[in-house]
Amino acid sequence: MLLKQLVIFSLGIIFSEAALAPPERPYNILLIMPTSPGSHRVFFMPLVRALAERGHKVTVLNALKPLEGEHPNIVQIRHGVTHANPDNIDLFALRLEPMKIFDVFASICRLMAQDFYNDPPIKALYEKRDEFDLIILDHIIGEAGLPFVHERTYITINPAPMDPIQSAHLGNLQNPAYVGNMIEDYTRPFSIGSRVKSLFISLLLPRLWGSSTIDPVEEELQKQFPHLPPFSDIIRNQSLALMNSHFSLEFPYPVVPNQIQVGGMHLRPGNPLPEDIDEFLSGSSPVVYMSLGSMLNSSIMPEAAKQAFFSAFEKLPFKVIWKFEQEPPKPLRNVLMKSWLPQQDVLAHPNVKVFIYHCGWLGSQEAVYHGTGIVCLPLFGDQIKNAVALENLGVAVRLEWSSVTEEAILAAVYEVMNNSKYRDRASQVSTIFKDQPMSPVDTAVFWTEYVIRHHGAVHLRSPERDLSWAQLLYLDVEVVVLLLLYAAYKAFKKLVALCRGFFVSSQPSKIKQN
Ligand SMILES: *[C@@H]1O[C@H](CO)[C@@H](O)[C@H](O)[C@H]1NC(C)=O
Ligand SMILES: *[C@@H]1O[C@H](CO)[C@@H](O)[C@H](O)[C@H]1NC(C)=O
Ligand SMILES: *[C@@H]1O[C@H](CO)[C@@H](O)[C@H](O)[C@H]1NC(C)=O
């Protein structure tokens, strides 16, 4: 077993060194992130850096503070449209009313669309959009960028797993009998109840999502750019979709040639830790790591939950490292609190055995990649779905915010700490993930250059894109068949009636004859 792991581990090292052919020429590429959550950039930057190292010029447009020490071929441009900044949204309040997120999205998207093309850096880039060989657009709430990509060659990049709504646009309608949706997943095989729910949500969600994220943007931008076609036409014209998805980390589903799985581009071995953190993690005690990610601060969680964590951590016979952004109310002997932590390097430390977090997708992938057991505390959006997926994968137990007590926290942490099955399963999945012909970043680089080399690569597009629902599901043919059957039934009935009439009218004469 150990030997096998060693062999596969070294394979993993080889794949990332397998050389791509040199590029035909340096390209000029633009990456647009309208909403700009920090986590999206975490996923995109490995591709941006790899493209820059191959000699391409990559301009990154987002609302984030520029990163320091990046390759000189990377131009970071900061825009000022920050309506989607998570500091302005009370995510804990949203947990109690999950449907409200659609209203929140709708108002954010409308405001963004109103301001986007009045922002000077965005305006200047928009004027220059013809200079780029390729535009890459963030798929998640990226609709404000659609005027940039009209009549341009573009691809999308999705920091989340495959989105069935996008898949349908690309001509690959997913089957809700075994593919979940953007907000829910179920244990496979789906029970009849799950299949009904899955079908219902797959039909409803495109409308709900569209009316909150696409329609308000389209309404606003059609006023500013009257020449634009319907947004659904522009969306359907994307050359290719890169997605943060891989069958080892989820489940197998069908893809068409322009849906490319580049799941885990951000995953990498740990780098050396800052000295104080390294010192704390080293030693003989196993360590629990807690963080609610970059969008959520542990310090603003509900007071009762915060107290429950404090008293539970105090009782644990393990060390705890906690991303906590304020002065701690009281220092605990076994707990190190820091307002920021290099997450992957912490997870990569061999003593870190349990990760308590909100089940954002990037963190989930990092935990599994580094063989850490997981305690999920999902809050909103796709986190609940991710938590179910991780449970199904056998690497996690789940806690609910509504029942976060000291006892529940202790039970969950002990369960994952004391049973190595969660970490063993994570390591097993990690081994399968690493066994790929090309690293996810190289795969993304290859397909990005491919689309430019082949002027939009229209030959990758599925003919299903040009079929209506009625044609795809054979509804037109079914209607004709049903009509024919109905006509046949009517004709048969008529015939029976005629025969009966014949008998009835002929019988009295027979009687007479007798
Ligand atoms: C979280 O903490 C960081 C660092 O202290 C701060 O800059 C940010 O505004 C906080 N965010 C929220 C949502 O409270
Ligand atoms: C559709 O994509 C092709 C290939 O990338 C591009 O040449 C064309 O201009 C696009 N059409 C529209 C309407 O955006
Ligand atoms: C887990 O192990 C700890 C000691 O490391 C022990 O105190 C605790 O009772 C165990 N809990 C469970 C549920 O096995």
From TrEMBL:
Q: Answer yes or no on keyword Glycosyltransferase.
A: yes
Does this entry carry the keyword Kinase? Answer: no
* Molecular function in Gene Ontology: UDP-glycosyltransferase activity
Which regions span the lipid bilayer?
none
Signal sequence extent: 1-18
Keyword terms, alphabetized: Glycosyltransferase, Signal, Transferase
Q: Give coiled-coil spans as residue ranges.
A: none
Which protein is depicted?
UDP-glycosyltransferase UGT5
Q: Which organism is it from?
A: Hyalella azteca (Amphipod)
